[in-house]
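Let's practice the habit of predicting before peeking. Look at the sequence and jot down your guess about where helices and strands might fall. Then scroll down.
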Amino acid sequence: MKKTFSLHAPRKADARVLDAIKHEVRKYVRREHRKPLPEGFNRLEFDCRVGASEEEATSVSLKDISPALDAVGRTGAALAFVEIVSRPALRGSFRPPLSS
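Done guessing? Here is the structure:
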């Protein structure tokens, strides 16, 4: 997901617009988790960037996207840029299933 959101909408409070953006981000992450993983991998990792524009976006962890969006909203910016890229990864001591 690589998207620029407007932080202002007519007849809507800015806080509700920000909540709608966060909801869309969560919905995207849930959708990515439902996709089957490639053979040999057991989890997904997310590379995330958030900022007022693509040039100003900074790297954040998945759990820090909401606070980062709040910070962009507090600056008074008109737009918020969000980029989330999922990639397969291995967790800890993963052993592939035994083939019979």
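How did you do? Strands lie at 2-6, 43-51, 58-60, 79-89.
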